[in-house]
Design a protein that fits this description.
2 domains, 8 strands, elongated, 2,3-Dihydroxybiphenyl 1,2-Dioxygenase, domain 1, alpha/beta, 4-stranded mixed β-sheet, single chain
C-alpha cells in the first residue's frame, strides 16, 4: 500500500474475517494484501495473519491482529450515507444478521465491535431543514429509532 494515510483497525485475530465481510457487504470495498508471520512469535505461529490491507467504500484500511488489549468503541465509526430505505435495510441487516447489534439513531455494531452509522441522505436533509420546526420534528423522530425509517422521518419533517 503506497498511501500516506491509512486507517488502522485493531482486531483480536479476526482482521481477515472482518475485511472479507466488509468487501462482500459494502460497495467499493475489497480485500488486498494479507501479511502473515514469517516465523513463530510469543502470541502466535508462523503463517498467522498479522495484518490485512483492505478498502471499505474507497477508504484504505489496515486490519491489525493485535490481540484482545484494545476493543473498538463508539469513538470511531464508519458513517454510510444511504440513498433509500432498501439500501439502509440491506446494510443494517447485513451487519446485524452477521452477529452485530443494533444501537440508536441509525448506529449499530458489527460482530467485531466496530460501530457503523447507517445514515439515509433523507435523514441528513431532514435534520438540516431550513425550517427549524421541521428539522426539530425530524430530529425528535430519529431519537426514537434504532434503524432509520425514512418514511417516518419524512412524515415528521412534514408535520
Amino acid at each position: 500500500m503506497t498511501r500516506k494515510n491509512t486507517i488502522c483497525l485493531w482486531y483480536d485475530g479476526t482482521a481477515l474475517d472482518a475485511a472479507e465481510f466488509y468487501a462482500e457487504t459494502f460497495p467499493d470495498s475489497a480485500v488486498g494484501t494479507v501479511h502473515r508471520a514469517p516465523g513463530d512469535y510469543p502470541a502466535g505461529r508462523q503463517g498467522d495473519v498479522l495484518t490485512v490491507e483492505f478498502t471499505v467504500m474507497g477508504i484504505p484500511c489496515l486490519g491489525l491482529n493485535g490481540g484482545p488489549g484494545f476493543p473498538h468503541t463508539e469513538a470511531f465509526s464508519f458513517q454510510v450515507a444511504t440513498d433509500d430505505q432498501a439500501e439502509t435495510d440491506r446494510l443494517w441487516d447485513a451487519i446485524i444478521d452477521n452477529g452485530g447489534s443494533p444501537s440508536v439513531c441509525g448506529w449499530c455494531k458489527d460482530k467485531w465491535g466496530l460501530s457503523w452509522q447507517i445514515t439515509p441522505r433523507a435523514l441528513t436533509a431532514a435534520v438540516s431543514d431550513p425550517d427549524p420546526a421541521a428539522a426539530k420534528r425530524a430530529f425528535e423522530a430519529m431519537m426514537g429509532m434504532a434503524r432509520i425509517d425514512i418514511a417516518a422521518i419524512e412524515a415528521a419533517r412534514r408535520g
